[in-house]
Write a structure and sequence with these properties.
The chain has one domain: Rossmann fold. Helix content is about 30%, strand content about 25%. It is built from 7 helices and 7 strands; from the N terminus they run ααβαβαββααβαββ. The protein has a 7-stranded mixed sheet with strand order 3-2-1-4-5-7-6, with helices on both faces. The structure holds S-adenosylmethionine (SAM). S-adenosylmethionine binds next to helix 2, helix 3, strand 2 and helix 5. GO terms for molecular function: nucleic acid binding; protein methyltransferase activity; S-adenosylmethionine-dependent methyltransferase activity. Keywords: Methyltransferase, S-adenosyl-L-methionine, Transferase.
Length: about 210
């Protein structure tokens, strides 16, 4: 996720700067470096029945469906435009928040590239791109409730693949995951001028 909110003191210009670079008038998140890294981790680790939370355009889900050992991929998103776009790609998609509507132990793999940019509450812009990008003041406002509930929908020996940015606080995310009962391991990592992106594989001792 390209980041303009990097302490450069340009908060008021964040939305406009992103709009110029990424065409933010589209209500659906366009796949970027973070999407690519999550797809790479999924190619290595996804198996069985897969849920991609926050599927956006469905690009990651579409690629994951081609991974050997993956039997079915479901995408979910709060954004109805994203669900429609993912379905146009052939991805089975449902409108949902995090893992709320899903049955216990339903998925062997859960993927999530969350909205993670730390955002000044006074600079929020209130549209679907904000839902895709903003992780609230800490950057972890969606990640923490996700970690608190995702273990419920994981099948025994299941794995969560979670994209984490250094902007969000890698250590804080790992600490919260461990508090929720997960073992955490980094699967892939890549550094960019404005952030380091990692994908964590999280598993429960069961
Ligand atoms: C950074 S984008 C990632 C999109 C896509 N997975 C990708 O990697 O290109 C985050 C996505 O999470 C979705 N989202 C935000 N809040 C959510 C929630 N509470 N439950 C499910 N999805 C959510 C956004 O609408 C957006 O599509």
């Amino acid at each position: 996720m390209p980041n303009e909110a990097d302490g450069s003191g340009e908060d008021d210009g964040t939305r406009d700067a992103l709009a110029a670079r990424r065409g933010l008038d589209d209500p659906v998140y366009a796949p970027a470096e973070d999407s690519g890294l999550l797809a790479e981790a999924a190619a290595e680790r996804a198996r069985g029945v897969v849920l991609e939370v926050g599927t956006g355009s469905g690009w990651v889900a579409e690629r994951t469906a081609e991974v050997e050992g993956v039997s079915r991929v479901l995408g979910s998103d709060v954004n109805p435009h994203a669900c429609r776009r993912a379905r146009e790609r052939g991805v089975e998609a449902v409108r949902a928040s995090l893992v709320d509507p899903f049955r216990d132990r339903a998925f062997d793999t859960v993927l999530f590239n969350p909205p993670y940019l730390p955002t000044d509450p006074d600079a929020e812009w209130g549209d679907w791109q904000e839902a895709a990008l903003s992780g609230g003041e800490s950057g972890r406002e969606l990640i923490e409730p996700f970690l608190e509930d995702v273990g419920r929908v994981l099948a025994p020996s299941g794995t969560v693949l979670l994209l984490v940015s250094s902007l969000t606080g890698f250590g804080e995310v790992v600490e919260h995951a461990v508090d929720c009962g997960f073992r955490a391991e980094t699967v892939v990592e890549e550094s960019f001028p404005y952030e380091t992106l990692s994908v964590l594989a999280l598993s429960l001792d069961n």
